[in-house]
């Protein structure tokens, strides 16, 4: 079956779609039905070579343009993405299975925000002047060169833009490898960027599995690697990049805590817990999957949560009323079902959900476990699916220590009406992104990234510029130079 919005070939290299069917075929499955909707082919070594050499040529041209010119291209691409939001959202839904209700407001739109934000910033990127008596130093903010972006499968359009926009704003070229589970969306991002005026080759997309990613990461011509993926993959990619002393950004997994105090606005806290566990069927890295609920409100919380989950509209992701879709793949569904079985076996109390739905596609019910303890597997490991673990607590000091007792540190949230407690908890969280009385917002203006094993570096915001550029210091002596001999 062919869907109208599909890209026309597997790769986008040097400003054009490229096909080479000798690469390993990768089937693209629509998660809502299990049907194959496209086949792409992994990049052969020859195509990887073309991607790197064309990126090298394009980078020189792109970096020679002024920031204003570069920014204009990015902002034009942002406008085009917004104009084509419907088409891009449909494609995102076919690629990931996420409901159109979500993709139409959270994917191409978020990608467009990144292109617009970094497009606006491109002309403002400068070095500085440092006066040293009559001598002086000036710094030049220079691009790193060739950047590799490697994406996870949960937000394929957004990840392609969150990495591409700051990289391009700084004058780099990017070679992006999407997850093999969701290969389609990044191709459209590349197509739009080039239609908007990007020099051919400045943003290439090559398909493949981990071996294609590894070939890119280890190539000596690559200067920077930005990965969004799991912690185990992050360890491998970080180590490979270290071998070549390359710059890295690592956006990795999490098992984030969400603390709900007894004075919280209960409906808002439940909204936060729903957004932080069931949006995108729970396939969000920053999800607050360890929900610590104060014992005094635990039963009220669980009763209301179960009632609200009952109103989730589960089904065909293309229907506008659908608010909960399938898992991205059969594999991910089975991983999540395994965790649900472990939760039951460990003695957690199933409050609702817990089963695969009896229909085509990879659907799992929104699932809530109560009476979860810190040592259970479902409270320690990233599940990456719609499974909320509710843990009880009595005391602020105790809950903060338990919230931080994890190798992860991506995000953390707190719901309370006590202003000073909210800020005390936020300061105490060992996490890169914290939320007070909200959860999972990710505006481009704010830095996003993880502490501890959840990552290195930050995406979005002014902070991303430091991760896609480097400073050169130039010393200038105005007078004679003294030497010891
Ligand atoms: P994986 O870690 O399995 O894969 C991430 C990407 O890395 C894929 O494109 C994968 O290719 C590629 N890859 C795998 N092995 C290598 C290697 N040795 N060298 C180079 N590239 C490699 O993650 P998932 O795709 O399963 O995504 C889910 C994970 O991503 C979760 O842990 C989630 O928390 C995390 N994530 C983090 C986010 C953040 O911003 N912090 C945001 C979204 C997700 P392929 O899959 O094609 O083999």
Automatic annotation (TrEMBL):
The modification Cysteine sulfenic acid (-SOH) is found at residue 285. Transmembrane segments: none annotated. K(+) 1 binds at residues 29, 95. Its EC number is 1.2.1.8. Pathway: Amine and polyamine biosynthesis; betaine biosynthesis via choline pathway; betaine from betaine aldehyde: step 1/1. SUPFAM superfamilies: ALDH-like (SSF53720). Binds 2 potassium ions per subunit. It catalyses: betaine aldehyde + NAD(+) + H2O = glycine betaine + NADH + 2 H(+). Keywords: Metal-binding, NAD, NADP, Oxidation, Oxidoreductase, Potassium. PROSITE patterns: ALDEHYDE_DEHYDR_CYS, ALDEHYDE_DEHYDR_GLU. The keyword Oxidoreductase applies. Its cofactor is K(+). K(+) 2 binds at residues 245, 452, 455. Residues 17-474 form the Aldehyde dehydrogenase domain. Pfam families: Aldedh. The active site is at residues 163, 251, 285, 459. NAD(+) binds at residues 151-153, 177-180, 253, 285, 382. GO terms for molecular function: betaine-aldehyde dehydrogenase (NAD+) activity. PANTHER family: ALDEHYDE DEHYDROGENASE-RELATED (PTHR11699). Belongs to the aldehyde dehydrogenase family. Dimer of dimers. Involved in the biosynthesis of the osmoprotectant glycine betaine. Catalyzes the irreversible oxidation of betaine aldehyde to the corresponding acid. This is Betaine aldehyde dehydrogenase. It comes from Roseobacter sinensis. The lineage of its organism: Bacteria, Pseudomonadati, Pseudomonadota, Alphaproteobacteria, Rhodobacterales.
């Amino acid at each position: 079956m062919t869907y109208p919005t599909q890209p026309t070939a597997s790769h986008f290299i040097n400003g054009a779609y490229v096909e080479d069917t000798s690469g390993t075929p990768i089937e693209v499955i629509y998660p809502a039905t299990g049907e194959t909707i496209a086949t792409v082919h992994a990049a052969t070594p020859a195509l990887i070579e073309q991607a790197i050499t064309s990126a090298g040529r394009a980078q020189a041209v792109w970096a020679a343009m002024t920031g204003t010119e570069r920014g204009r291209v990015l902002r034009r691409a942002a406008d085009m993405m917004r104009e084509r939001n419907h088409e891009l959202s449909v494609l995102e839904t076919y690629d990931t299975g996420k409901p159109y209700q979500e993709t139409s407001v959270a994917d191409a739109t978020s990608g467009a925000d990144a292109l617009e934000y970094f497009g606006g910033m491109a002309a403002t990127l400068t070095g500085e002047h440092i006066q040293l008596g009559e001598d002086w130093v000036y710094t030049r903010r220079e691009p790193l060169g060739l950047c590799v972006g490697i994406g996870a499968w949960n937000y394929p359009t957004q990840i392609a833009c969150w990495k591409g926009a700051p990289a391009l704003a700084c004058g780099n070229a990017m070679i992006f490898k999407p997850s093999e589970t969701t290969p389609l969306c990044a191709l459209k991002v590349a197509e739009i960027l080039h239609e908007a005026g990007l020099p051919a080759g400045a943003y290439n997309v090559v398909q493949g599995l981990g071996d294609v990613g590894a070939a890119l990461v280890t190539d000596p011509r690559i200067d920077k690697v930005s990965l969004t993926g799991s912690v185990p993959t992050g360890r491998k990619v970080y180590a490979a990049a270290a071998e070549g002393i390359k710059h890295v950004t690592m956006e990795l997994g999490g098992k984030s805590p969400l603390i709900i105090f007894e004075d919280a606005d209960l409906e808002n806290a439940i909204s936060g817990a729903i957004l932080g566990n069931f949006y995108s069927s729970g396939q969000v890295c920053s999800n607050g999957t360890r929900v610590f609920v104060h014992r005094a409100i635990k039963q009220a919380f669980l009763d209301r949560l179960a009632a609200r989950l009952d109103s989730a509209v589960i089904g065909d992701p293309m229907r506008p009323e659908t608010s909960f879709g399938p898992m991205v793949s059969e594999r991910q569904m089975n991983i999540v079902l395994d965790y649900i079985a472990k939760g039951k076996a460990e003695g957690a109390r199933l409050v609702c959900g817990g089963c695969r739905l009896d229909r085509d596609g990879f659907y799992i019910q929104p699932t809530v476990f109560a009476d979860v303890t810190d040592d259970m597997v479902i409270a320690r490991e990233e599940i990456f699916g719609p499974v909320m673990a509710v843990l009880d607590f009595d005391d602020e000091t105790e809950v903060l220590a338990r919230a931080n007792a994890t190798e992860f540190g991506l995000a953390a949230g707190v719901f309370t009406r006590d202003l000073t407690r909210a800020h005390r908890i936020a300061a105490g969280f060992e996490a890169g992104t914290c939320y007070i009385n909200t959860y999972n917002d990710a505006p481009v203006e704010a830095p996003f990234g993880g502490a501890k094993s959840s990552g290195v570096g930050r995406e979005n915001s002014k902070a991303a510029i430091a991760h896609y550029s480097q400073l050169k210091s130039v010393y200038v002596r105005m007078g004679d130079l003294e030497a010891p001999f």
